Amino acid sequence: MKTVKEIMSTDIVTATTKDNIYELAVIMKQHDIGFIPIVEGKKLIGVVTDRDLVIRGYAEKHSGSTSVSEVITTNIKTIESNISVDDAAKLMAQNQIRRLPVVESGELLGIVSIGDLAVREIFVNEAGEALSSISEQDHREKSANRR
């Protein structure tokens, strides 16, 4: 049985709470990413997504110099590296999340994404179910917002 450690991405772009939302937007653009773990040293504090920047940042009329702490999501699901890929996929599907930080004693080791599950053809059914569930939720949210 494969573990999360075997498939997680370890080349992670991170930021700190000392950064501002403009700097995060630039990092996202430079690296073509929409998800940045926020760390203090190696300790995971939370994450900021491109959606967080828009919804909690710019749509709330915060300037680019606004602290990351204004848009950070701190109540995040994480997983340990020795957990099976199957369990990671189930957790992602149940919580409708695309990326799962991998931590050990609170320290960020890597990230597992839906793509990591699907690209490596490991537990394709679970990855497909997770992505389908997430996509359905996104579609429902968009439909509800149009009303």
CATH fold naming:
CBS-domain
- Share in β-strands: 15-25%
Number of domains: 1
| Mean pLDDT across residues | 85
Order of helices and strands: HHEEHHEEHH
For the largest sheet, list the strands in their spatial order.
Answer: 1-2
Q: Please state the overall shape, judged from the principal axes of the Cα atoms.
A: elongated
Structural class: alpha+beta
Q: Helical segment tally?
A: 6
Q: Span from first to last CA?
A: 45 Å
Number of strands: 4
Overview of the molecule:
It is a single chain. This protein has 147 residues and is of the alpha+beta class. The chain has a single domain (4-146), classed as CBS-domain, CATH 3.10.580.10. The protein is 43% helix and 18% strand. It is built from 6 helices and 4 strands. The strands form 2 sheets. Strands 1-2 form a two-stranded antiparallel ribbon. Helix 4 runs parallel beside helix 6 (124-146). It is elongated and about 45 Å long.
What are the defining features of this structure?
single chain; 147 residues; alpha+beta; CBS-domain; two-stranded antiparallel ribbon; 4 strands; 43% helix; CBS domain-containing protein; CBS_dom; Diverse_CBS-Domain; CBS domain
Quick structural summary:
This protein is of the alpha+beta class and 147 residues long.
Please describe the topology of this protein.
Blueprint: H1 4-7, H2 21-31, E1 35-40, E2 43-49, H3 50-57, H4 85-95, E3 99-104, E4 107-113, H5 114-119, H6 124-146
Antiparallel strand pairs: 1-2, 3-4
Organism: Paenibacillus phyllosphaerae
Protein name: CBS domain-containing protein
Keywords: CBS domain
